[in-house]
Structures
1.
Amino acid sequence: MTEQMKTGITELDEILNGGIPKGSSILLSGSCGTGKTILAEQFLFYGAKEYDEIGIYISLSEPRDKIIANLEPFKFYDPKLIEDDKIKILDITQDARLINLEPLTVSGIINMVSSIIRDSGAQRVTLDSITAICNSLESERNIREFIFELGLQLGYLDCTTIFISEVPPMKFQYSVYGVEEFIADGVILLMEHEDKGDLIRTLQVVKMRGVNHSRNKQILQITENGIVLKPMFEL
Ligand SMILES: Nc1ncnc2c1ncn2[C@@H]1O[C@H](COP(=O)(O)OP(=O)(O)OP(=O)(O)O)[C@@H](O)[C@H]1O
Ligand SMILES: [Mg+2]
């Protein structure tokens, strides 16, 4: 039996019968504003606080200062963990290693991301988002090669990864390129649901290899304590 890693989102850990399998790569898909970044950050901060695990958040879409400012209202956010280097927040769009990677090649990006993860010694990793990397690769062929190679390399690294994919709103779609879900060991889908003019957020665990989990749709609420889930339909 593979050891499982608690995400820190109580109800999600219950749905997963203990958490995400250690060493796996999880695709977290959702449209804008569905809570992807907050979920991934909560996973990192929980690991650092409760288990002294190093977490690294690799951003490809938002600057570091903005990411930190958005974290401040949440109780799980602890600036001391960043000061102590337990949580590293990296905006790699500003990283000289990426800027010098001209032209951007699949192997160049993969090597860079792998070495950042390896050097950080992180047990928990978040890549926010792979869609942003894919947008900078020119052809569909390169994008597919990048996604397959990423899955392969993450499998060799000694960490558990949540990689984020931005999908269009109101569509039952796991990924942009239709291949991300196959390389991932698990897929968590965040969606929105319109109800009387209000947009309700939902979460569904679509797959989690090696885990007997529920596929029940959950209503997702963002509170100052982080993400809270409750079943959308009582069974
Ligand atoms: N302090 C807060 N309390 C409650 N809800 C919040 C708070 N801060 C942000 N939110 C809600 O969370 C949403 C953003 O969540 P998050 O950044 O995780 O979404 P995302 O899926 O990563 O979006 P994007 O695709 O734009 O990156 C905001 O649109 C807002 O509705
Ligand atoms: Mg985000």
2.
Amino acid sequence: MKILVTGCAGFIGYHFTNNILSKRNISVIGIDNINDYYDVNIKKNRLKNLKLKKNFTFYKIDLLEFNKLNKLIKKNKIKYIIHLAAQAGVRFSIENPRTYFDNNIKGFFNILEISKINNIKHLIYASTSSVYGDNKEFPLSEEYKTDSPLSFYAASKKTNEVMAHSYSYIYKIPSTGVRFFTVYGPFGRPDMALFKFTKNILNNKQIELFNGGLHVRDFTYVDDIINGIISIINRPSKKEIPYNIFNIGNGKPKKLLDYLKNIEKYLNKKAKIKKLPIQTGDIVKTHADIKKLKKYSNYVPRTNIEKGILKFIDWYKEYYKID
Ligand SMILES: NC(=O)c1ccc[n+]([C@@H]2O[C@H](COP(=O)([O-])OP(=O)(O)OC[C@H]3O[C@@H](n4cnc5c(N)ncnc54)[C@H](O)[C@@H]3O)[C@@H](O)[C@H]2O)c1
């Protein structure tokens, strides 16, 4: 099976590619534009690891380069696409909505067109728990209302789901949107809490806790996310409209303050905390209802936050050569 992975130098794209390449008879064509939203060296080092694997080929291509991307897919006779490239981040979208429009909406349109032209057998694309906005009923089920996003990031991802539905209906493109819940793990994103907290605690710097740390998140270890994606690759919807949406989460939400306590415990060091008010666009609580995916593909999340945070900290210390 030949798979196109977009965003393969990103956090989740890297882990997905690394994992799937350990299976038999898989080859991956990876693309990424290596943008500088965060430290480019992290992306380069992820790629360096991937390039050690056989059956992996990388192309530096932007989603907006339609002809290049289309040619690549035609030439390689690709039939499966895992679309993970995007401009991520809720807070960054408040100051920079246009980059979300370009990368997430226009970029996704190209992926849909390419899926249509090349008769893709299954398009899986990343969506987010942010599409649930400030729903007050928990756990968050796929059936709940998602048409009141609180950030333009969430709006761009909800737009993807709606666009995919029309392509699945009109052109019968089998598509599955996967709504990830706060993903964390080794080689994670420097703009996310675990990375920022660890870095600042080690450097004796203050950490900023929005909403006083009272946010509740369904923190999901990256390997669980990857296993969730892998469990459905060969299971596109067989319905009249071949369209599906799944939550991929852990199902056990935790307070951000408890998450922080674990980081402090494993670093054996207290954080200097600066409590700040809630930010526009932030959601107070997420809690994934994961019954749908469990029933569909036997998905079971296996890593609790204690184990997951420890794995991240081990990676961080090794990567930055800290004793
Ligand atoms: N990490 C999370 O907690 C989380 C939660 C929900 C959803 N998601 C979604 O999962 C996907 C992967 O997220 P991530 O955390 O790995 O983010 P990431 O930023 O680490 O990875 C995204 C990658 O896409 C690349 N990219 C961006 N725009 C591109 C373009 N126009 N052309 C080619 N490459 C481009 C970036 O260079 C980056 O390497 C994204 O769609 C994100 O919105 C992530």
